[in-house]
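Quick question about two entries, pasted in order.
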Amino acid sequence: MYRIEVDQADLAASRFGIAPLLETLNALGLAAGRVPAGPLGPWVERARPRYLPISGDPAIRTLTFLRRRAGYMADFISPPPARPNLTIAEQLATMRATPLDQAREEIARNLVGLPAPDAVVRDVLDAPDMVERLATALETAWHALLEPDWPVLRSIVERDIVHRAGRLAAYGWAEALDGLTRQVRWRDGVIEVDILGGGDATRRLGGAGLMFVPVVFSELGLAVEQNWPYTLMYRARGVAALWEGRAPRSPEAGPDALAKLLGRTRADLLRLLAEPATTTWLSARLRMSIGGIGDHLAVLYASGLVTRERSGRSVLYRRTAVGDMLVGTS
């Protein structure tokens, strides 16, 4: 078990980030079958045809070989975000700047506990341009697997960040960590983290704060290596729901008065907006075009049933008190 000691200064210094490079590596592992798909099975089925054309690339094979469900993974391949809103290009630049000696040391640690690599993988790992080859392979995987879905994926993690950051700022550590996962607990000034295959150590943030990184394509992870910000990675809320179909209203639920008043789509939108969401997330959830969702949101906004505010590059919508009353009485 890892124990992370925190104080009041760490609360103020803690922040949230998005890690597209880490998501790319994890998505590659899922598409290659290296880790169980779990709730992401529908996404894996959709992504497999995009994965197969790149699967024979030696550097892609090397990345999938290094991907493991538990245990250390080379940090330079998926560096924790040093600040919020990093782009994939910025993270790839950080990766490419890794000194070869450092990369080889991290790869050696990554290989512990894995079977011996085959000749193709060994050639990539022994190459003098190993870092560049792996970076190029991750860039290829990004374009093939994640870039088409990135607006939706980004909206998922942004929605989670708004929720979790609000709880951290308003109520402190205990509330922010509540419901994250059963493997993370708050206990008297210490964050306890149980990770499959993890170590047993105590770390102190010392005023530097903790980087929270919600992710879509993996579960719990903790980075407590030197020269990197201490980072807690956890699965964002609502991932499984993204690939579910639009759920029909149960006949047992009785007449849908709200749908009769507003129309089915606007009623569904109002119900989904108990928490902030982007038009991209809503369009994916309801299987409608972004333009169509935007038109409905404009009507709800003009009617005073939803509010909107900018968060970074996105606009988030949420029910107003009047919207809450309508949903509560429907």
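Here is the second entry:
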Amino acid sequence: MGIRMRCETWNVPRARAVVLIAAAAGLLTRMLIAANMRGPADVHIFRGFAHAIVRYGPIRIYEQPLPGLPVYNHPPLAGWMLLGLNKISELGIPFGTLIRAPASIADFFCALLVFEIVRRRASLGAAVACGTGVAASPVLIATSGYHGNTDAVAITFALLAGHLLVDRRAPLAAGVAAALAISVKFIPVVVIPALFVVALRAGRPVLLRFTAGFTALFALVWGPVLATVPKNLEENVLEYAGGGFRLWGLVRFADLLGLPDSFITFIEGDGHFLFVLACVAAGILLARLRPAQLPVVVGVTMGLLLLLSTASALQYLTWPAAGLFVVGFWPGAAYSCVLGVTAVLGYRGRSAVRWSETVLHFAEFGWLVLAAALAVGVRTILAASPDRPGEPPAGESRVTAPRTARPTGSTVN
């Protein structure tokens, strides 16, 4: 509360500088972890993927058996990223440090992005708190700085697409950002229909520009793979359903309740597509009702995807972390802290994919926290005006969302 009250007399540049400093400190923390800790098995796996891509190329990699490695289930842009990181590692920088740099850098920019999104919808103090929350988020520090992977990069691009489309009124750039999101990690595909719905509602010129940006980048990145190894891409990436561990969410609770194995097998298999469709439908509905709240809708939809996920991995906890800070400081902080403990304890265990009873109990509680935070998110979206948020004057000392765009009930206290 004290930070928020002091921020009310700041101007935007000063507040942005505070978040920038927090984001830089967060990046430094993540990179120190990356440079001094070995990380989970995924670090070794990504190194193996990178060596295979050097040998086979980022396109043909999808048709290779890769003995000793799991299925290569990453979208095409990830292959080019691994190729570049492997090249940089030849300069003497350890690959284990480099593989965790993209997610850590993404968190840096995501903190600034969340600040820009929130300051258009709440007070300047709330925006500073939420941006700083992303920078200091325990779950993001653990999953980006220690684990790595590309989840944080994809989420940042997804939130950026929503911000560019409705706040910056830059549909061409928004389309590019949306395509980049699913080209790094395919999970943000659940928010793409909502983005197109908002672009459609904004009028034909906006829709055409958004579609042009999305299509151009998608064709550039995905086109060569679709033309060369379409079946392998479909099997490895588009149909990937995650691991079969019963550690998280619906599958975990179904197992605890002793539900039949046939039911659990169904929801882990073909049934999980129903949950994906539910996420897509929720995103479309919320976007249609409150198009001006598109960045919040993106955050809530990604959170709903994790809530209904039948797969489990500690890096998946990244998906809602930044988006819940777009909803409000307390939902974001509650999720980040509880699931941050889950991630830290999980990474300290014998294996990041075999959770101890303590980690499982924290995850169960975290699932409930996520459900409550999403309920707050939906309420916040529906309480807001459907009008577009305006651009605050750059030099205003007290910056708030325009009266027609302010939610009737703020979630930041």
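Reply: The longest helix spans residues 357-383. The chain has a mean pLDDT of 91. Hope that helps.
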